[in-house]
Specification:
The complex is a heterotrimer of chains A (104), B (381) and C (277). With 381 residues, chain B is α/β, with parallel strands linked by helices. In chain B, 38% of the residues lie in helices and 21% in strands. Chain B is built from 13 helices and 16 strands. Chain C has 277 residues and is α/β, with parallel strands linked by helices. The longest helix of chain C is centred in the first third of the chain and has 15 residues. Chain C starts with 29 loop residues before the first helix and ends in a 5-residue tail after the last helix. The chains are: A mainly beta (104), B alpha/beta (381), C alpha/beta (277). Strand 10 of chain B pairs parallel with strand 2 of chain C, so a sheet runs across the interface.
Chain lengths: 104, 381, 277
Amino acid sequence: MKFWRVPLDADEIHVSKGIVYILEDRCKGCGYCIEFCPQQVLEFSSQFNKKGYHLPSVKKPDDCLNCHYCEIICPEFAIYSVKVTCEPADNTEGLEIITTTRKN
Amino acid sequence: MKPAINTGEYFITGDVACAEGALAAGCRFFGGYPITPATEIAEHLSVRLPKVGGTFIQMEDEIAAMAAVLGASWGGVKSMTATSGPGFSLMMENIGLGICTETPCVVVNVQRVGPSTGLPTQGAQGDMMQARWGSHGHYEIIALAPFSPQELFYQTIHAFNLSETYRLPVLIMTDEMVGHMSEKVIIPDAKKIKTVSRCKPKGRKNRFKLYEPGPNLVAPMPAAGEGYNIHVTGLTHDTRGYPDMTVETHKQMMDRLIGKIRGNLNDIIQTESYRLDDAEIAIVSYGISARTSSAAVDEARKRGIKAGLLRLITVWPFPEDKIRELANRVKGFVTVEINLGQIHLEVQRCIGGKVPAFLVGDAGGAVIPPDRVLEVLKEAF
Amino acid sequence: MKPGHPPGHPLEDLLRTDRIPSIWCPGCGIGTAFSSCLTAIKESKIDPKKVVMVSGIGCSGRAAGYVKLDSFHTTHGRAIPFATGLKLARPDLTVIVFSGDGDLFAIGGNHFIHAARRNIDITVVCVNNFNYGMTGGQAAATTPSMAKTPTTPYGNPETPFNLPLMAYASGAVYVARWTILHSRDLTESINESLTKTGFSFIEVLSPCPVNYGRRNKEKPLDTLKIYKDRTIIKNKAHPTQVDLDYEKGIILGKFVDVDRPTFGESYAKICRQDKPE
């Protein structure tokens, strides 16, 4: 996270990190998660799901603060974030797209 | 708490007997709306229900009353409402919901003269076909037509038992005359009253299917709050209760809704025969008109006319077999009812032209005098 | 959390996942309001076995079919009286009515005012998308004046209800309004009302992009931007002051939070107890 000035207690503040999960088959491509992510973590991917909807994809995985807003605004229970407990060493794994159809 | 069953001998109206019958059957919720001549049922239950652990609520209209009754039933409480023609019309949509969702409850219609506001509030029997077909779509229904306050007491208990057994709204199609008539009513000892409660599911909750039929095609019924995560919908649904918009599922659902009644006719249908064994003319009647008819039978017999009465206690499902059997051995039928031919049509259908059928009907507002029946008996046969 | 072993969606246990995805159109806000409702149920810590959802007919009415609770999908407009019967028969249950504006306020309007007057202890969440979505976007009792719908082709000549005012005037003890964009506040309001005793009403403004938005030149994101730019949060605003006015700004917030005896409480006190003769 970038600050325009460094707070005096910056080293004491723990900024949470999140991983975004997308349940591909549930997404209807409304784009709300992309538009209203406060950190602009997401973008439209060029990928379609089985029903032909454009999915979101993670543009900036490092920037996810696990605020859950994508999860809250999503009308389809298709996206959610999970807190990363320790700083991931390599953030290329910051995104998981679950492509299997979930059937319980 | 006061006792729910007031054992003793009383001189009360049919409406009050009906209310006492409901309490004896275990009814603990009444949702209603005032309408003459059914109001006394609501009034009596507003006094009695809170004192026996039940709830009475006067809703904003009959639509709401019927909806509340269904809601209470899914809460696991035996529930009922009582109304008359105009209110019965308003209840029709939710009676359909009760049929589709298989919700036990009792609806009393103390019939008055229609159409519309009609002749308030004199009696009639003009809602019999509405009872059969009033809600949209095809379905089977159970409707009872008691002919005295004492029978209204017993048939109200029976209506609850049938509704709990077969999981559907059961209609009591009484009339203003019986509802407002005061007669001796004996309320027996609680031990002598047989009550039936809906079958509850057993087994593992996560494997439970809401509409998986048990014996008699009726599924066990949990109440809300028991952890079954039930989904109840008026949409066509599969055995899980989930909406499924396919022709196949609809047929399966309908087969069961219809089958559970048609497959148990012997258990459901009750009739009473009066001097019918050697009868040459069969009078078919129900409710207050059955009293007219039994008087006419006695009068006819005095004059050498061999008449007998088939009194329908269950009007729907219609006792087709009984009529067909009679058609093989009598010279003709006379239907007596305070409308211009409703059950008469059913009688005609069942005898299929084998013997003549006559109607002694009336536009409504008064009891048909036995003389009118006698005249037809004399002239037609 | 290891990739490849993702946790489920946090609301998975309250969803009938075998019925998802829902029938709702892309960009429809009902799902978001529904999601808020489920989060509120979770956060309320009420035993889910004792929570019941009742819906009427229409798009929002389908919510009952997706929630893994005891749920009832009733007839058009009759969710509230059904819920009334259920709650009175079973006071131990927490009953939520989740339905739409057409269902609750046109065909079911009479039931709403009477349940509020009686102070039946239920929570009513109304997804207001300003039209009858399921039948193709016809005008409702909430459609803004001059809005175009298939039954108001020249613009709506009628005036819409101010729903919070109606709830307040009828006697609701808790009244709030949010949009689906304000989902955290919405969740908090639903949570509060679930634990509050009495008739609670929450209006949720929500886009219907396919049926309402399309005819009124509003794309789903445009509607949400209106919710972002033209809303004012004003808790305790008087309900007479909160009619929906896009020019002056849409007022959101918790407007009413008062206490008075419920029907059940009064009934027990007045009718159940034996009084000396």
